[in-house]
Amino acid sequence: MEDYNKGLLYFIGHDPRVPEDLRTEMLKWGYPKDEYTDNGGWSFQLYVREARRMIGQYVMTQHNCEGREVVKDAIGMAAYTMDSHNCQRVVVNGMVKNEGDVQKGTPGPYPIAYRSLVPKPKDCKNLLVPVCLSATHIAYGSIRMEPVFMVLGQSSATAAVMAINDGKAVQDINVKALQQKLKEDPLVDGSIPEVLVDDADKTFLQTKGQWQQTKASHNYGTSVTTANSGSIRFTPPMQHEGRYTIYYYNIAKQGKAPAVNFNIVSADGNKTMRQPLEEHGNEWVPLGSYSYKKGSPYYIELSLPEGVQGDMMADAVLCVPE
Predict the structure, then answer these.
(1) pTM, entire model
(2) Predicted confidence (pLDDT) per residue in 232-281, tens digit
(3) Please, are residues 103 and 109 in contact by the beta-carbon 8 Å criterion?
(4) Which homologous superfamily is 195-321 in?
């Protein structure tokens, strides 16, 4: 593999079959002088896009990526396109064609099963696999992103500690307790986590009037919920006391109301404000700082100001601890 890649670079820079302008441009470049200095500027490790993977208790598939099958034992999320490079290049009628290329987007973030990180009990009981996890070729093309591996690595480490402390096989830990640990301390530093409510989180939404869930350009998550009358209330599932800055996700959409009323109820009391909304949107709009205390109500409600016409866009709200 090293000979092949070095040979390719040499070919581009020296072979007379390569156009002279490309050879000249190529020879302006070389191996890095400040990296891998003990190996001639050449990396010690090859990038391996995909290799053998475990067949675990659960196999992630295209159904998961497309949201047609949603797992209950989620310990991380993925969202990247189902991406697989071509297998070979062929010439058809004098044209170069790529065979086997796959580029299919996902409708939004989707959960990854804890069961896809652990082997079948008959194979092994003390192994967690966050990288070569149990997934089909197509699903792995979406999951195989560094941020996702970081999430799965953290989830696996937390699960390993639980298994060791409880003296259990990795297949037998309390997955609900694992999920709760990951939610309570997502940065693994004891800090208070952000609280996000998307319009798809029906458990934390209350509506009055005729609200419709649709897809719009640049909406947050998989959808946006709209109406031209009534109200909608976001009720974030708060777990920690403190002050939070509340943000509303404003998206661009034709026919959008130029302003909405926000009624924010917190430990500080009740505050109603009229918020102008930029037409271009697709950004988080700050709504101020508010306190939360256990047992106190905490919600953000949208409604139309008197005399204002257009669609209210209920997409997502985010509470960021201060």
Answers:
(1) 0.76
(2) 999 999 989 999 999 999 998 888 999 999 999 999 999 999 999 977 78
(3) no
(4) Galactose-binding domain-like (2.60.120.260)
